[in-house]
């Protein structure tokens, strides 16, 4: 039973590694970014609200994001653990997750911090823009997303470090190399 978070700047490879780790740890991966994007493409009320924030490189408001995660974490398939990709991203989201877990008598096992420098991030996301045409992958929006990450999400690393939960992993190199680093780090912690 593993409860794991993947945290890191946009384009560090959270979504890419989440798919692999979810399989390796046999827990469902929950990506708030993916859930927002599928709501946008289905044109749901949540999708319409989220799109404006995402296109501007801003975070979707905490109330919408927290409601979404709260209901997802009450579904049956996460009873044996989960991997959260891209949540929490703000201090208010950390508080929400703490409340949800405490109510179920649970706690987190590990927070994997994926790191990559901003030049690599801009290069990866610009490439993704050409391949997938994501509306939040223009250089201007990417730079803004990096600023938002530094301002709102980077401070969470201290919160989780103080709880002894953070494992920092270099996100540079091939996808396989990064996966191998993460699995080795989890092995070391007996996860
Ligand atoms: P996310 O969907 O979480 O996406 P991301 O930060 O862009 O990227 P990620 O780190 O997952 O990178 P990926 O593996 O795709 O967020 C998108 C938006 O949703 C946010 O800006 C926000 O508006 C909203 N949102 C989501 N969660 C929220 C929350 N909790 N609160 C409020 N708002 C929220 O990799 C990026 C690219 O690099 C890919 O093209 C990939 O193929 C490539 N890549 C990956 N690993 C590589 C490697 N090792 N080498 C080379 N390329 C690599």
UniProtKB/TrEMBL annotation:
GO biological process: AMP salvage
Pathway: Purine metabolism; AMP biosynthesis via salvage pathway; AMP from ADP: step 1/1
Its EC number(s): 2.7.4.3
Domain of life: Bacteria
GO cellular component assignments: cytoplasm
SUPFAM superfamilies, per the entry: P-loop containing nucleoside triphosphate hydrolases
Written domain comment of the UniProt record: Consists of three domains, a large central CORE domain and two small peripheral domains, NMPbind and LID, which undergo movements during catalysis. The LID domain closes over the site of phosphoryl transfer upon ATP binding. Assembling and dissambling the active center during each catalytic cycle provides an effective means to prevent ATP hydrolysis.
InterPro entries registered for this protein in UniProt: Adenylat/UMP-CMP_kin, Adenylat_kinase_CS, P-loop_NTPase
Name by which UniProt lists this protein: Adenylate kinase
Subcellular location(s) of the protein: Cytoplasm
Species whose genome carries this gene: Subtercola vilae
Known catalytic reactions: AMP + ATP = 2 ADP
Subunit structure: Monomer.
Enzyme class of the recorded protein, top EC level: transferase
GO molecular function: AMP kinase activity; ATP binding
């Amino acid at each position: 039973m593993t409860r794991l978070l993947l945290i890191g700047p946009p384009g560090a490879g959270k979504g890419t590694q989440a798919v692999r780790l979810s399989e390796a740890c046999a827990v469902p991966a929950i990506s708030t970014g993916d859930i927002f994007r599928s709501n946008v493409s289905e044109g749901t009320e949540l999708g319409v609200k989220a799109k404006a924030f995402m296109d501007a490189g801003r975070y979707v408001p905490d109330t919408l994001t927290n409601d979404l995660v709260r209901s997802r974490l009450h579904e049956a398939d996460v009873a044996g653990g989960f991997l959260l990709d891209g949540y929490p991203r703000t201090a208010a989201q950390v508080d929400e997750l703490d409340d949800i877990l405490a109510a179920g008598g649970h706690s987190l096992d590990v927070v994997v911090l994926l790191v990559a420098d901003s030049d690599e991030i801009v290069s990866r996301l610009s490439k993704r823009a050409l391949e997938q045409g994501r509306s939040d992958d223009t250089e201007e929006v990417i730079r803004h997303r990096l600023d938002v990450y530094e301002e709102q999400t980077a401070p969470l690393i201290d919160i989780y470090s103080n709880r002894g939960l953070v494992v920092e992993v270099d996100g540079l190199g091939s996808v396989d190399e990064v996966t191998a680093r993460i699995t080795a780090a989890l092995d070391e912690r007996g996860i």
